């Protein structure tokens, strides 16, 4: 084979290959489906969602470290819930705790969702801890008397 053809693909494609430009593999991370509610949750696939931590599970020291968080759309009202709501598990493998994530924390998260033991689960999600929602009123300034 001539040197100028070594390493070059000389076969003609039967169908055109779309140009991905300079995005590369990073485009996949930004192509998640933004969900308004966990009721829209697909069985599998990449999602982006904003929700509240309902509960956390910390495993004993004898077990392999994994920090599990259960996420829902809205925090429970005072007195608890009367009906079941859709929820999702976020599992941080290799972590005993994740600083800043406690019950009631508001999160923005994304990752690949898959059903594990019948519950939608994301392993090692990307996440952002969001500030609590406020009533929109600014605190009243203190006056010195």
What does this structure look like?
The chain has a five-stranded mixed beta barrel. The protein contains one helix and seven strands. It is an all-beta fold. The protein has a domain at 45-130: Nucleic acid-binding proteins (OB fold (Dihydrolipoamide Acetyltransferase, E2P)). Mean pLDDT is 80; it is low at 5-29. The N and C termini lie far apart (93 Å). A hairpin with a 7-residue loop joins β2 and β3 (66-72).
Distance between the termini: 93 Å
Shape: globular
According to DSSP, the number of beta strands is 7
* Sheet/helix structural class: mainly beta
Mean pLDDT: 80
What's a quick, concise take on this entry?
With 145 residues, the protein is an all-beta fold. It is globular, with a radius of gyration of 23 Å.
Q: Which properties best describe this structure?
A:
single chain, 145 residues, mainly beta, five-stranded mixed barrel, 1 helix
Write the layout of secondary structure elements.
Elements: H1 26-29, E1 33-34, E2 45-58, E3 66-72, E4 88-93, E5 106-116, E6 119-123, E7 126-130
